[in-house]
Amino acid sequence: MPSRLSEAFKDHPVYLHHKYLDFSSVKELPDSYTWTTQPEDYPCPNSPSGQEVTVPVIDLHHPNALELIGHACKTWGAFQVTNHGIPKRLLDSIQSAGKNLFSLPVHQKHKAARSPNGVPGYGVARISSFFPKLMWSEGFTIIGSPLEHARQLWPNDHAEFCDVIEEYQKEMRKLAGRLMWLMLGSLGICKGDIKWAGPKGDFAGACNALQLNSYPACPDPDRAMGLAPHTDSTLLTILFQNSTSGLQVLKEGSGWVTIPPIPGALVINVGDLLHILSNGLYPSVLHRAVVNRTWHRLSVAYLYGPPSNVQISPLSQLINSSNPPLYRPVTWSEYLGTKAKHFNKALSSVRLCGPMNKLQDVNDQIVKMG
Ligand SMILES: C=C1C[C@]23C[C@@]1(O)CC[C@H]2[C@@]12CCC[C@@](C)(C(=O)O1)[C@H]2[C@@H]3C(=O)O
Ligand SMILES: O=C(O)CCC(=O)C(=O)O
Ligand SMILES: [Fe+2]
User: Fold this and answer.
1) What is the ipTM of this complex?
2) Pocket of ligand 2, candidates 138, 212, 231, 239: which has the most ligand atoms within 8 Å of its Cβ, to mutate?
3) Model's pTM, two decimal places?
4) Is residue 9 a part of any domain in this protein?
5) CATH at residue 196
6) Which of 288, 301, 304, 327 is the most buried (most CB within 10 A)?
């Protein structure tokens, strides 16, 4: 069983046999990037009442932030936060760092290519192998220090990139710990209840991955897909998006709902491990990224999880005779391996027999496309 995050995929290599595209030179969408969709893939974008719906925007200094977050996790599995303490300067810097990286020539980016059974490096989303068509995006994954790959990208000139990434990781770690206690607090869980949060309750052993996503402007956006529908295999994900919209979440009864970029705000997604920890009370959110004809879009996802060897299972405080545990214990590394093998069936594959009609995993509704 792999014990480190960077080894999570060693038993599930992904070989993607295709030439990387120089997106900027493509004038017509190639067939391999053309997604054919059925009308039911696009459920009505507004609520049945005709009212516009959008995920809650929560000021972290609001006196009722805890309750607002609990409600957002239960009903949406996603929300935006403001007043989160991440300086605007750092958000601007991470955006420039991402822009510099993705605007390098294709052959240069390939020098930092992700290996088939590895996690860090440049490449297409790992979930690509589950879809017959390619996604109109490229990504760069960082686990721990960015140094090794940054050196391959900029042999003499990587210090600034590394400094920004390291500061971003440090600030995100603090924010993720804060959000964890707000989310857990809203479930009635207190500091002493989570042993792996460590003696200071700062989740010092938590693991993370940083994913930079680039979505170039696309000649035929209605037939392309930036990032296919998926849930994150995390406790929570903190997502920065530039000023171009594209992120959508699936909301029951409303269909795909766009999360509009708000300057300075960050998007928080509930991941599969929080789904398990909360025994399904906070369901992980199915989301995707669409593309557009005019604007380049950049997003930076901070994927946050427990120490890789800690077993995550439904919290005992949430279990009683009418609420039996719905999931078996699983480590983050093991779950990532399961996801690499079963993708949208990963959550059901760790589910214990239970009242399936009471709670359906969001992944069971995953949209068939391609
Ligand atoms: C920790 C991780 C979650 C992730 C796989 C990874 O090892 C690093 C990349 C992450 C990411 C980002 C884009 C979407 C996603 C589904 C993918 O293909 O790579 C997620 C993975 C995940 O949450 O399962
Ligand atoms: O680009 C986005 O908005 C979504 C990115 C995402 O879902 C991810 O990196 O896991
Ligand atoms: Fe995601």
Assistant:
1) 0.97
2) 239
3) 0.94
4) no
5) 2.60.120.330
6) 304
